Amino acid sequence: MIKYILSLSLICSLSFSLDLESLLAKVKNESKIELDIEKKRLDKFLDNKNEQKILLAQSKKDLLAEEKRSKELKKLIEAQELVLIEQEKNLSSESADLGEMFGSLRQSSSDFLINFQDSLTASQDINKEEFFHTLANSKKLANINELKSYWISMLDEIIKSSNIEKYQAQVILNSGEKVNKKITRVGLFSATSEGKYFTYSSDMKSLVELAVQPSSSDISNAKDFEKSKGISSILIDPTRGTLLKMIENNPSIMDRINQGGIVGFVILVLGGSGLIFAFYKMILLNIYSVKIKKQRKNLDNINEDNALGKIAQVFYSNINDSLNDLEIKVGEAILKESNKIQKGQSFVKLLAAVTPLLGLLGTVTGMITTFQAITLFGTGDPKLMAGGISTALITTVLGLVTAIPLLFAYTYISSKAQSLISILEEQSIGLLAKNLK
Fold first, then answer.
1. Which residues lie closer than 8 Å to 164 by C-beta, 6 or more apart?
2. Average pLDDT for 190-201
3. Percent of the chain residues topping a pLDDT of 90
4. CA 197 to CA 183: how far, in whole Å?
5. What is the pLDDT of residue 19?
6. pLDDT digits (tens, 9 = 90+) for 45-100
7. Does 395 score more than 50 pLDDT?
8. Residue 265: per-residue pLDDT
């Protein structure tokens, strides 16, 4: 057994010694290769040493040249910096003048644009507004062409503002329809078409027909002016449309009446009824007067269709009675006819006195409403107070408007009735005096 172990150990030792020898041989071989490579590299370096010296000398020469060039460029930069400083001073000086002109151009363009946007001439050239809007909001200085266009546009606007021109333009009617019409423009003061007046709307970029037109005479004058080739009259607005637009704010007669409310309606009903009755009474009294005067001329031929004829009929029917009885019967007839003639006078008089009182009542109630509004909202808005007071005073106006003609009517009716009664009394006294004879 020991013999086998010793044999195995001997075999392992021999194998291990063989591996170490092969490893040592391999290392020696690789070392030799590396030494050969290093020797070749060194030999090559030594061969290129002269070439390296030449490259080094050239690099030093280039370095000296670049340093010299750097000094020259530095001197040039310093010189150019001085020139740049001088140029910046000149630029600053020139820019100050240009900046002032730029600011003036923008400001004048903005001012012109404000006026032009509501001008009647804008309906002729809508591109002009865009041009001035660009100048007013420009962030850079305008060029020569833009400055020329600016100057020409300003001159064109000055010329148009003093001219009477006719041209085709898009207009918006009250119905909302947009049509093309022939416009007659008088400077900046009025624009008409077929007698109708128009204003320019900057929002709609078009001429807009006035909702409330001026009087019919002004419309007629406008039509004549459009057709005329010579001198003719026309209504103009020196405020460039402000006064024409204010016509829309003026309330009509019906608006005023509606402001009076229930009290105003009652006043108008009473006043209208009183005037109709007074007119009827005037006609009736005039008919009475004609018949009485006709009967007065011929008392022998009695006609009972009038008051004097009825009184004469009573007289002649009772002529044989005593004077006392005859006088009483004639007096009764006169009183009866006088009542017929005077009938209704008190009604007209009552209405003439009541309508102003109703107007005062409406004013008082309106003022109460106004003061209640002031209590709630204060006096910060004068329009609130003015509108309430104006509404309150409408009833007073309505009362006076109805009372004044009623008062005249009552005076006429009263005097006419008194005149007829005087005729009846005179003729009755004449008949009684004739009987005494």
1. 184, 185, 186, 187
2. 85
3. 1
4. 10
5. 59
6. 666 667 777 777 888 888 888 888 888 888 888 888 888 888 887 766 666 566 67
7. yes
8. 84
What are the structure tokens assigned to 180, written together? 């093309």
Mean pLDDT over each residue of the chain, to the nearest integer: 77
333 and 312 in contact (C-beta within 8 Å)?
Answer: no
In angstroms, the CA 345 to CA 338 distance is 12
CA atoms within 13 A on the CB side of 7: 4
Q: State the pLDDT at residue 16.
A: 46
Q: What is the dihedral of CA 45, 50, 55, 58, to 10 degrees?
A: 170
Token pair 């329809």 in the structure block, residue: 177
Tokens of 208: 């807009």
